[in-house]
Request: fold
Amino acid sequence: MMATEPVVELDMVGKTYYTGDIATPVLFDISFSIVPGEFVAIVGGSGSGKTTLLNLMGLLDRPTAGCVRVESQEVSQLDEPGRARVRRERLGFIFQFHYLLPEFTVLENALMPCRMRGRAFEKQQEPRMRELIAAVGMSDKLKVRPPQLSGGQQQRVAVVRSLANDPAVVFADEPTGNLDSVSGRMVFDLMKRLSRESGTAFVMVTHDENFALEADRVIRIRDGRIQAPEETLPPVSSGSSLP
Amino acid sequence: MLTYFIRSVAFRHLRYSIGQSLLTIGVVGISVLLIIYLWTVISGTQERITQNTTGAIPHITVEPPERTPVGAWQLTALGQNTDTLYVGEVVNLPKAREGIEDWQLWLPYLDGVDSSLTTVSPTVSGQAFMNRGSRQQSVRVLGVLPERHNGVVEIEKNLLEGRFLTMVSGDLVLGRKLASDFGLKMRDKVRLVGPEGLTLNFTVAGIYNTGFGQIDDGQVFVTLRDGQSLLELGGSISSFGLKFADLYKAESISQKIAPTLPFKVRSWVIDNPNLFRTLDAQSQTRNLILIMTTIASGFGIASILVMVVTSKYREIGILKAMGATPGEIKQIFVLEGLLLAIVGCFVGVPLGVLLLKGLAAIRTVGPDGRVDAPFLIIIEPSVLIGASIVAIVVGAIASYFPARRAGQVDPIQVIRGA
Reply:
């Protein structure tokens, strides 16, 4: 198999929180990488450090040890505006609570990451986003505002939004955790389908073992460490998933 | 730089939270209205008081220095100078104060002292008795060149009948109250007895009502020449009265010209110290009210924006997670504060102008029968612009702190804390 350059790499990453003089280590020596188009599930019990790991990968937080690389660029030591720029241009996010902006329509919400990069980029991406919204079955809701949508519909918009800036990787923090089982399944299938179709890597933190088992790879975290060995379900078929 | 993203989020926030936006606009609008209203009305009142005080008097008076009386024991040393004034000697005005004999030589010089000068009026003044039939009253006689003195106090405009500017020798112009006290009508004869006993006859040539008590009640105007004769001043005058377009320049001009003249130079400011103290106290009160209004407006904007920031906590977090920088978030909220302040100005300024125009249109009849505006309202564009600038700057400062708080929102806490 041809070696594919990772979109995200973690090299001996550690995180310790400090409260005054008290140090609380949360993550220890985490090393792994994500390749394009890969769908990775991170699972672990409450307080295992999986969300902290996702925040470090998503540049929402800084590691206290090791380094994080996004598309080979060392990003963990960037300042806040620098990390914000990388998030804006190369990363996508889906959260448990969809957090759409209530003042904006479905289409505008989906285009928000593009809007941050300027009107021209937003205009350029609009046809693609319309297609994606149609692909998730919400083409009749383009001009509707979020408060008029169900939780599942809102999360579908959030999934579309995460792909707006054509990211290298999308981080999803328990995206189905706040949904009923039918809506949760719909959103999970949608993420998998979009990952496959767009060739975008997805890293999903989940409690749901069923969803985890359907991922290309599962990273299990326990007490801040990766549980060895990594369990790999269907091998990464990077050739077929990339456009 | 205000990017498309910043502008669109700020505008949409304001439109979506229209109730909060209108509340803030109302707070700013009322503050601007108050600033404009208070400033204009208090300044107008001050101007009215100042005009009432200075309207009938010259802004600068140039007169000969008072003669210093000498002790009787110095009589021998001083020789036979009969013109010397002695301590305790009861004298009339011409002896207590010398006249200005060569006033015609000084007149061109005074005419050119400052560009804001409107008139220089050579004047003779003194007390005389006015007689008519059995009635007799002490009056102040002012001998003037009418066309020049009309610049000091506008007699011609306030004439009820007769003439002032074309007054000739033998004419006398007096106020309505004095005329009615004496039962005088136009062309009636009246007699004036000077301080040295000289009696001259005059004909009433004009009756005026200026609204200034001291001019309307106890003062008469005659020509300069007649005044000199009645007061036995020869060719001298008692003083020059100078009037300026800007009365507040009088004191500095007075100090500037005093060393160049062999006379005593006094501005109206020196003669009216209590007025100045009153105006100063009024200005300080006005400024205090304006500062309080401005601070209240600032707190109003700040508190509403703090509410907005708190209610948008999650959205700020998600925007930051998606890549909005702290600077961009800060700019969104400062822009919101600025927009609210600007729209507030657009509401407050026209309302303020409307209110002031309403006040300016009010007319009341005074005790002297004159119909006049109780408020002196001068709507200065600089006040409107100044109030708007103050509101906008306060809006920007007031929105900065909530905006900074918004910029510091930690997306991790928001995402996990919902």
Q: What stands out?
A: The CA atoms of residues 365 and 371 of chain B lie 4 Å apart.
